[in-house]
Design goal:
By secondary structure, this protein is mainly α. The chain folds into two domains: 4-134, ARID DNA-binding domain (DNA polymerase, domain 1, Orthogonal Bundle), CATH 1.10.150.60; 189-282 and 298-491, Leucine-rich Repeat Variant (Alpha Horseshoe), CATH 1.25.10. Helices cover 49% and strands 4% of the residues. The protein has 27 helices and eight strands. It has helices at residues 15-26, 30-50, 68-78, 81-86, 90-96, 106-117, 119-125, 168-174, 187-195, 198-211, 226-233, 245-252, 261-268, 271-276, 286-291, 302-317, 321-328, 331-341, 346-359, 371-376, 380-405, 410-423, 430-436, 439-448, 454-468, 472-479, 484-490; strands at residues 4-5, 13-14, 60-61, 64-65, 507-508, 545-549, 552-556, 566-567. The strands form four sheets. A two-stranded antiparallel sheet has the order 1-2. It has a two-stranded antiparallel ribbon with strand order 3-4. Strands 5-8 form a two-stranded antiparallel ribbon. It is elongated. It starts with a strand and ends in a 13-residue tail after the last strand. Residues 1-11, 135-139, 146-151 and 529-580 have low confidence and may be disordered. Residues 557-580 are annotated as: Disordered. This is AT-rich interactive domain-containing protein 2. GO terms for molecular function: DNA binding. Residues 34-126 form the ARID domain.
């Protein structure tokens, strides 16, 4: 019995004639087959584009591209995908396309590919039916078969996120919570850090490193303050207000290389700092005691490089004013930066000192009260915890600043002078700074003024100027230093070029002229050489100008200014008038 099939655009064909036509297509020459395959692919793409479901690339099974033209001809040769599905002929189609038998569930994948890409095309061009027509279950189509395609759910073109949205009216009826707003910015970064997966954590650190650099899309911590705590947890320091974060991450880090963060802090801090900040695992690993392993810091330490990367991220973010406000109020971050500044690793210590210098103007030292302690003063235990923690890092910071100024390390002296000057800008720090300001410290700062180094000179002058702003007590203590006034007066006639090029390390001399002062007037020359003045008139105050003496320009500074000296390295402070 030959069943007649109506082909769209042509007369009805019997099944035998249709089978003969399909087999002729399958046994064409290679060149003709390639041409027909390309034409079929273009026609299929146009068909899907007209229906709003375009595709760019052909599907793949087990890494091998599926020949849609051969698949369509093989299925239609049997009578369509429903016929193949009823007769369980997908394995036969799989062999016909020369797919390996070892591919698991290949027949199921092949059927899904056909349904996704070719089922509607077959319905229109092979069966001659309407693609948008939905047949009722049990009804017969034009081909004489019962329609069972409605029972098969086709693969959607895109994920329908609207299925999760519930209207507010239904939420009220069902007693659900109000509809949540859009997810906050950087929420995916927080989720990756909470996942505990090593690859997700590494990717997030890389993204934060890029976002911490200056640019249009720099990281803004005020939009997601919790990101600070999650980044610090990657360095082994956990916030006290989240007791679940520490055990969760420690459990996920078990067996992962480079996650022994507590060991890093123990081996890089002195015992006094470890006891002060309550850092320690409580017990040492048996392997360390058995083999007497020494912990190496630097490029060979995975934990050290991880902590250094996090420190660099916060160092870059501290230059932004909006980020500095968030960082200075985070207690866990202050603890992290102080531990880094007290560590034995010089690279980490340098990054931490630079970060403290950027935030020093916003830090409130103990025993002054900051905003958080003013709000927590009603709760006695909470206030004691905040005050005790701030007392620890305040004492550590003052001791670190004092030791740095009195050290012989040029970088350490300059950075600690900068930190001291910026701490003086916070009005609440007057009392703790006056308690730490004694005669040896003042004498050391005045001694730095006599060193032939312009950078030390500028930072020491700035520190003295900011200390003089603390009031009468600070000025009297500076006056107790022997010949302190003479040193300051001698700086009024300082010629920076006399120090030579070695004293200008990290500095650059540029000429500055005060636009408010009139230029000096030189009397007109006379015929009498003896009457020609050899210097500028002293009736008006001297302005910084360039006076030629034998062809070499020399910078002359006006009294009470430090013009002509400008730093070019690091975020150095501005130069103010010297203390009276």
């Amino acid at each position: 019995v030959c069943a007649c099939v109506c082909v769209r655009g042509g007369p009805p064909l019997c099944a035998r004639a249709l089978f003969r036509r399909v087999m002729e297509k399958l046994h064409k020459e290679p060149g003709d087959y390639t041409k027909d395959s390309s034409s079929f692919t273009l026609e299929l793409q146009k068909f899907h584009e007209s229906r709003g479901s375009p595709f760019r690339h052909a599907p793949r099974i087990n890494g091998r591209e599926v020949d849609l033209f051969a698949l369509y001809n093989s299925v239609t040769a049997i009578g369509g995908w429903q016929k193949v599905n009823d007769l369980l002929k997908w394995d036969y189609i799989l062999d016909k396309l020369n797919f390996p038998k070892a591919c698991a569930n290949a027949s199921l994948a092949l059927r899904q590919v056909y349904v996704r890409y070719l089922s509607l095309f077959e319905k229109v061009h092979f069966l001659g039916e309407d693609a948008d027509e939905e047949a009722d279950p049990g009804t017969e189509s034009r081909s004489g078969r019962k329609s069972t395609g409605a029972a098969l759910v086709q693969v959607p073109m895109s994920y329908n996120k609207a299925q999760h949205d519930i209207p507010e009216s239904q939420r009220l009826v069902l007693g659900l919570a109000p509809c949540a707003g859009p997810s906050p910015e950087y929420n995916k970064l927080c989720m990756s850090l909470l996942s505990g997966l090593p690859n997700e954590e590494t990717l997030t650190l890389n993204v934060c490193t890029l976002l911490s650099n200056e640019g249009r899309h720099s990281l803004k911590l005020d939009r997601m303050p919790r990101l600070v705590d999650l980044l610090l947890s990657q360095a082994g320091l956990f916030p006290a207000d989240d007791p679940t974060l520490r055990p969760m991450l420690l459990e996920s880090w078990q067996g992962v290389e480079g996650r022994r963060m507590e060991r890093f802090w123990e081996d890089n801090l002195d015992p006094e700092t470890i006891a002060l900040y309550n850092i320690g695992r409580g017990s040492k690993d048996e392997e360390d005691e058995l083999f007497n392993l020494n912990y190496e810091v630097g490029t060979r330490s995975i934990e050290g490089q991880r902590v250094l990367r996090i420190a660099l991220i916060f160092h870059n973010l501290s230059f932004e004013e909006r980020n500095a406000v968030i960082l200075s109020k985070n207690r866990t971050f202050i603890r992290f930066v102080m531990l880094s500044a007290l560590s034995r690793w010089s690279t980490l210590r340098q990054v931490a000192l630079d970060t403290i210098g950027n935030l020093a103007a916003k830090l409130v030292l103990y025993p002054a009260l900051d905003e958080d302690e003013d709000e927590a003063s009603s709760g006695h235990h909470c206030y004691e915890d905040l005050a005790g923690e701030r007392q620890r890092w305040s004492c550590s910071l003052l001791r670190l600043t004092r030791e740095g100024i009195q050290s012989q390390d040029r970088y350490l002296v300059v950075r600690c002078l900068d930190i001291l000057a910026r701490l003086c800008r916070q009005e609440r720090n007057a009392e703790p700074l006056l308690a730490a300001l004694d005669t040896p410290l003042c004498r050391r700062v005045f001694e730095l003024l006599t060193v032939h180094d312009l950078m030390l000179l500028i930072y020491a002058l700035e520190a003295l100027y900011m200390l003089s702003e603390l009031g009468r007590d600070a000025c009297e203590r500076m006056l107790l230093v022997h010949r302190s006034m003479g040193i300051l007066v001698s700086l009024l006639t300082l010629d920076p070029l006399v120090y030579g090029p070695l004293a200008q390390k990290g500095m650059k001399l540029i000429e500055t002229i005060d636009p408010l002062l009139p230029p000096p007037q030189v009397p007109a020359a006379t015929n009498n050489p003896a009457a020609t003045p050899t210097s500028l008139p002293m009736s008006a105050p001297l302005t910084p100008s360039m006076v030629s003496t034998g062809g070499n320009p020399v910078a002359m500074n006006a009294p009470g200014t430090a013009a002509g000296m400008t730093g070019t390295t690091g975020p150095g402070p501005g130069v103010g008038p010297p203390a009276a």
